[in-house]
Specification:
Helix content: 25-40%
Distance between the termini: 29 Å
Number of helices: 7
Order of helices and strands: HEHEEHEHHHEEEEEH
Structural class: alpha+beta
Number of strands: 9
Oligomer: single chain
Strand order of the largest sheet: 5-6-7-8-9
């Protein structure tokens, strides 16, 4: 580590009150940071380590925000799993596992440490890095598009239940539907498309670029596969200006940078099942 990094680690480690933690691995990383794992690492100034990292978000004794990067991924994974189950877990990474301490938080954190000043950025004399900040959700861009895809993956049933056969138009047509307001990125009446020729030009472009991944695999983490009910998988694929969220036994949703807060469902049709199956074979999966 550079000398400034060592100073930052010492300052953050002096009294870090851990608030939350996330994984930064090829199969599981904050989508807001990038379309793939190397891009997400680059956003934090990290090399894309094969085993990934754990990101520990907390405050020091003065209330300053810090993101401590550790290479003990298993420790962070156990802590997250325990918290998800409602169990207490004292996440205290060993000093030898600390890779760097970054000022600020890359994600929004709704809680604060008790008994210390309100969360704020560390003073500039402590670190020469600009503080990390969460994405601005008031405007639409790549980060917001990926956050929207995260919401659909998290609340798949709520989105899927809003659609029926009439919501999938014939190629070249559009059929509006209204998603549940509480899960939409803000407002997003989706229009349906089917994979064959015709249909929405942006969707055709996304499908063509996704098919190209089969013969020219993209950077690690750009296609991810996670658990879904039954024998299905939840598939997530991202690319330049677009995101796909799908269930391998069902339909897909597409979000585009050029269409703020719009979500376009894609019916199964004759092509989508084969495409999803092929992408799932390329996807990285959580261990």
């Amino acid at each position: 580590m550079a000398e400034t990094d060592r100073e930052a680690v010492a300052a953050a480690d002096d009294a870090l009150y851990v608030l939350t933690a996330v994984l930064l691995t090829p199969a599981q990383f904050p989508s807001v940071l990038g379309d793939d794992y190397p891009e997400a690492c680059a956003a934090l100034g990290l090399a894309p380590r094969a085993d990934g990292y754990g990101l520990v978000l907390g405050q020091d004794g003065e209330g300053a925000r810090w993101t401590v990067v550790v290479d003990d991924v298993s420790l962070v994974a156990v802590a997250i799993a325990s918290w998800d189950c409602g169990m207490e877990y004292d996440l205290s990474p060993d000093e030898r596992s600390v890779v760097s301490a970054l000022p600020g938080w890359p994600l929004a954190v709704a809680v604060a440490a008790p008994g210390v000043p309100a969360p704020h950025d560390p003073p500039p004399e402590v670190t020469d890095r600009p503080p990390l900040t969460p994405a601005d959700t008031a405007s639409w861009g790549s980060a917001q598009r990926r956050l929207g895809a995260d919401e659909i993956a998290l609340r798949w049933s709520a989105w899927r239940d809003q659609l029926n056969g009439d919501d999938f138009a014939a190629p070249g047509e559009q059929a509006p539907s209204t998603p549940p307001a509480e899960t939409a990125p803000e407002s997003a009446p989706p229009a349906g498309d089917t994979p064959p020729k015709g249909g929405h030009p942006g969707v055709r472009r996304v499908l063509a670029e996704a098919r190209a991944y089969i013969t020219s695999p993209p950077p690690l983490g750009r296609i991810r596969s996670s658990f879904a009910p039954g024998d299905a998988r939840t598939l997530r694929a991202d690319g330049p200006g677009w995101s796909i969220v799908a269930r391998t036994d069902d339909i897909a949703f597409v979000l585009l940078d050029e269409e703020p807060r719009e979500v376009r469902p894609i019916g199964r049709g004759p092509e989508l099942p084969g495409l999803l199956e092929a992408l799932d074979k390329l996807a990285v999966r959580p261990v």
